[in-house]
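Sequence in, structure out. Go.
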Amino acid sequence: MSTQVLGLTPRRLLCAAMLTAAACSDSSTDPTAPYVYTPPPEVGDGWVTASLEDTGADVSLLEALVDAARGGTYDRLHGVLIVHQGALVFEEYFPGYRSTSGNQDGAWVAYGRNTKHECQSATKSFRSAPVGIAIDQGLIESVDVPVASFFPELSELFAEEKADITLHHLLTMSSGLDWPETTTPYPDPGNPLWQMHQLPRSQWARHVFEQPMAATPGTVWNFNSAAFALIRQDVIAKAG
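Output:
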């Protein structure tokens, strides 16, 4: 749903966050009754709250969204939060299934304000920050260092083109490794990420670099969650 439809320009709408999560407002104790908007309560968590009705937005559109989400139309939507000019003006959560990726069990969860929710790939931007810090502190020479230098115990795996894989390639998901994470469903046994999650963490790096090459490093982008897992678990740790 665009900010224009809501009546809020991108400049005025500071944040519209969708998380995966039971409604926290008590507009109705009957989940089958039509949803009626109420402003988020002040709960002492540092957020200032305000009414969406004061923003000029069409509240009925969001009421329809909540009704649709509660009715199962958006079964992967666990929550919607809208921040306008520094104030939280909308906060609703919805029950749903937890992810089955990683160590998640896919259980049905009544998501709410205090429910812990997996972040998934939202953490990838943050995981690259420690690399910059390590370079600034002289612990890593640059992003162009060969990845093999962080894994001397796997030296036999870094032959030919794999020897050219650099830290930059891991950060930009362009290692060239054959890694069909997005084309093979998770948890299909053929999904390399699923395969990795069946192994102890000490074997993750070997599993990743045992994969064959599908492209020359730096030439093709291919989504690879494992690359960022190795940056966090091995590269940063070994850099000190």
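Check: The first helix runs from residue 3 to 6. The first strand starts at residue 13 and ends at 19.
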